[in-house]
Amino acid sequence: MKNLLVTGGAGFIGANFVHYWMKTYPQDKVFVLDALTYAGNLASLNPVKDNPGFKFYQGDICDTAVVETLLREHRIDILVHFAAESHVDRSISGPEAFIQTNIIGTHSLLKAVKKVWLDEGLNKETHRFHHVSTDEVYGTLQADEPAFSETTPYAPSSPYSASKAASDHLVQAYHHTYGLQVTTSNCSNNYGPYHFPEKLIPLVITNILQDKPLPIYGDGQQIRDWLYVEDHARGIDLVITKGQLGECYNIGGINEWANIDIVKLICELMNREFAENATLADKYPHALSVLEGKAQSLITFVEDRAGHDRRYAIDPQKSNSDLGYKPQESFETGIQKTLQWYLRNDDWWTAVMDGSYRQWIEQQYSTAG
Ligand code: NAD
Ligand code: TYD
After folding, report:
1. Going from the N-terminus, what domains does the chain have, and what CATH number goes with each?
2. Which of 88, 352, 363, 368 has the smallest number of CB atoms closer than 10 Å to its CB?
3. Atom of ligand 2 nearest to the CA of 87
């Protein structure tokens, strides 16, 4: 039996990871530490909230003392670090929060685990710090360049990716200098349930349902490599259970799409869904364009993102060969599951967007410290 501390577990990938882990390892205990920023939603943890092996703490990873207390109190063996500021557009308009959480916050966690695991000796031989990072640390690719491998030099270009790159280096430094037992995964763009509707795929789905414009930055020909979020959780599991200490593993599903093509695909799938399912007209009476089978009429080209990376692509060969990693979801099945989830869970995304879910947070959960 393991005791996990998951930072950022109320965010998109963290929450999906917690669901996955508690299903896969029901004997383990999972503690979530999350500051509940605008991106953290306790409603995303509803599927596990009554599980006796689960407990939520509201707190900031920059608060080293709180992290140390949690490590000692729950005899944590594995810390899985998701907590971050994660939206590139926000990093352009306000980089400070990214420096604070992604760099200072990661260093705060490293200081806490060094003190408790190495200096005090709790789980000295058996601990693991798993750092969740991104392919964006490698910078941008031209159309004809090979995909990012673990040996591609770091060349981050946004304040977000630069802050993630800094945190990756700090994690490696704590391994090399102090012998902290770490692993890192660098994953491509994720999609799936519980994705905050400021990111491309959930934004497009929820805007269609509200008959709002679908903003395409620049020419829409930027390429991203998409992975279903549960396949990311599965990859992290393999890195934790089979990965070599001090190693980094790229996780991806070889699934490159130009933004405009993905938006057109979602429009087509939504048109078809509304044509085939009459109950959707009652549920979404304001979704006029998709009700007429014309969701693509909402596509609107807007000014490009500053410094917009042209292409990301992951070469997953190392995780395939060393860990036996392979995504289970095809893009066709993953995007269908995602659409269906948003169509069913309008209570989640409407509450997340207007912030009203926060009203019941205080009554339901304890606070760290
Ligand atoms: P998210 O923005 O949905 O969630 C981040 C979570 O961290 C939120 O619950 C937020 O409340 C919490 N948080 C933020 N600052 C905190 C702080 N100071 N202390 C404690 N908690 C804090 O992000 P996500 O998309 O789930 O990404 C999770 C991780 O995966 C990030 O580290 C990100 O860099 C990485 N990643 C994301 C993607 C992607 O496509 N979304 C791809 C690869 C890697
Ligand atoms: P995003 O989901 O923000 O992820 P990231 O920037 O981390 O890759 O954006 C994915 C792509 O979609 C990216 O190239 C920017 C583009 N995009 C738009 O064209 N319009 C939008 O409204 C958003 C949010 C993103």
Report:
1. 3-192+229-254+312-328+355-361 (3.40.50.720)
2. 363
3. 3
Q: Look up residue 111 and give its two tokens.
A: 């200081």
Has 68 been annotated as catalytic? Answer: no
Q: How far apart are CA 321 and CA 154, in angstroms?
A: 23
Strand partners, 226: 189
**Catalytic (active site) residue 50:** no
Whole-angstrom Cα distance, residue 251 to residue 186?
A: 6
**Ligand that comes closest to the CA of residue 368:** 1
Strands 248-251 and 128-134: unpaired
Q: Which two tokens stand for residue 238?
A: 């393999």
Contact 233, 20 (CB under 8 A): yes
Q: Which residue's CA lies nearest to atom 17 of ligand 2?
A: 200
Q: Is the pTM of this model over 0.90?
A: yes
Question: From atom 10 of ligand 2, which residue's Cα is the shortest distance away?
Answer: 200
Report how far ligand 1's centroid is from the alpha carbon of 141 (Å): 24
Q: Is the CB of 232 under 6 A from ligand 2?
A: no
Q: Each residue's pLDDT tens digit in the chain (369 positions)?
A: 999 999 999 999 999 999 999 999 999 999 999 999 999 999 999 999 999 999 999 999 999 999 999 999 999 999 999 999 999 999 999 999 999 999 999 999 999 999 999 999 999 999 999 999 999 999 999 999 999 999 999 999 999 999 999 999 999 999 999 999 999 999 999 999 999 999 999 999 999 999 999 999 999 999 999 999 999 999 999 999 999 999 999 999 999 999 999 999 999 999 999 999 999 999 999 999 999 999 999 999 999 999 999 999 999 999 999 999 999 999 999 999 999 999 999 999 998 887 655 554 444 444 444
- Indicate whether residue 162 lines ligand 2 (CB < 6 A): no
In the chain, the N- to C-terminal Cα span, in Å, equals 25
